[in-house]
Design goal:
The protein is mainly beta. The protein has one domain: Beta Barrel (OB fold (Dihydrolipoamide Acetyltransferase, E2P)). The relative contact order is 0.18. About 13% of the residues have low confidence.
């Protein structure tokens, strides 16, 4: 059995670039997402490492991403890894690996995310309108004892 599945949660490093494939008319959005991981080095000091991931979306998902996501937006993406090959202007063969995202789940609305106001609202209320984005807490692996997990 083979499986090519990626689920990633991160922040956009720039606004999505939207374009259309000339032959088919399909919409394509491309952007990068940054993810952070935390660990302790040999000296016991907390360290942070940031990874950058190229994301590509097609069709309606690309339209939604380019409309509602902006630089700094937090989102969850689900898709697959894909490696493309092409020749640059000097005739050199180049490769890139990217995530072809099929689904996106938007994160919380931040203060400056004006495009969220254009999104369809199901149950809008004052409490949601006044919501300010909160930082996601980071749990240190040393703080968790597997014996405390109730399953």
């Amino acid at each position: 059995m083979n499986l090519n599945k990626v689920i990633i949660v991160g922040r956009l490093t720039k606004d999505p670039e939207k374009r259309t494939i000339p032959d088919s008319g399909t919409t394509v959005a491309s952007f990068a997402v940054a993810t952070n991981s935390f660990y302790k080095d040999k000296s016991g000091n907390n360290q942070e490492k940031t990874e950058f991931h190229n994301i590509v979306m097609f069709g309606n998902a690309a339209d939604n991403a380019s409309t509602y996501l902006k630089k700094g937006s937090l989102a969850l993406f689900e898709g697959k890894l894909q490696t493309r090959k092409w020749e640059d202007k000097n005739g050199n063969t180049r490769y890139t690996t990217e995530i072809v995202a099929e689904k996106v789940q938007f994160g919380p609305k931040s203060e400056g995310a004006s495009n969220y106001n254009n999104a369809p609202q199901k149950n809008s209320n004052k409490q949601e309108d006044n919501y300010k984005e909160k930082e996601i807490p980071v749990v240190d692996e040393d703080e968790i004892d597997v014996r405390d997990i109730p399953f």
